[in-house]
Specification:
heterodimer; A: 111 residues; mainly beta; 6-stranded mixed β-sheet; 11 strands; 0% helix; B: 113 residues; 4-stranded antiparallel β-sheet; 50% strand
């Protein structure tokens, strides 16, 4: 089955690191994604990782993948107020060829 | 080409009317997806195309919904006899067949009164 779970809310102070976690159930997932959504806007692709990788770093973003535990995390270094948004984790399943999304984690960054 | 574009961005309609949304994907992308997002939820898959072929439809896509991609480029999503429960953001995304980068448009927000 396909199920992606995320915690609903995370609050951090500006300058701290944020870690957003995600668990998924489908072991045949090929790609795993992180998207950012600001109010009233579409989804902005932040980064993605292929399932045979353990880590991917892109500027302030670090993605860690633990395939054994089916756990994905997104670390944002030096979090800024502009990072306040909803972050969605999603998996792309080879068989069904569609993205399955979590319910999103609302990140609030306070000055 | 600056990305996936959707039109209109906002649509307000009365219950029972028909509405149509258009999506223009990134030009070299073979795959095109439609998703629906309601308030406080993650996007839910509706359907996807590979070139002009519609390869999968969700159970969410009732008989009132129809999607086309006639020439393998832009796509339309039509909702007939709209209901208040159809109020949502309709998102389009595109990618290459190989997967990897999958980009979304800004969405078309539908409000059914």
């Amino acid at each position: 089955g396909e199920d992606v779970e995320q915690s609903l809310f995370l609050s951090v102070r500006e300058g701290d690191s944020s870690v957003i976690n995600c668990t998924y159930t489908d072991s045949s997932s090929t790609y795993l994604y992180w998207y950012k959504q600001e109010p009233g806007a579409g989804l902005q692709l932040l980064t993605y990782i292929f399932s045979n990788m353990d880590m991917k770093q892109d500027q302030r973003l670090t993605v860690l993948l633990n395939k054994k535990d089916k756990h994905l995390s997104l670390r944002i270094a030096d979090t800024q107020t502009g990072d306040s948004a909803i972050y969605f984790c999603a998996e792309l399943n080879t068989g069904f060829q569609k993205l399955v999304f979590g319910t999103g984690t609302r990140l609030l960054v306070s000055p | 080409d600056t990305g996936v574009s959707q039109d209109p961005r906002h649509k307000i309609t009365k219950r029972g009317q028909n509405v149509t949304f258009r999506c223009d994907p990134i030009s070299e992308h073979n795959r095109l997806y439609w998703y629906r997002q309601t308030l406080g939820q993650g996007p839910e898959f509706l359907t996807y195309f590979q070139n002009e072929a519609q390869l999968e439809k969700s159970r969410l896509l009732s008989d009132r919904f129809s999607a086309e991609r006639p020439k393998g480029s832009f796509s339309t999503l039509e909702i007939q006899r709209t209901e208040q429960g159809d109020s949502a953001m309709y998102l389009c995304a595109s990618s290459t067949i190989a997967g990897g980068e999958l980009f979304f448009g800004e969405g078309s927000r539908l409000t059914v009164l």
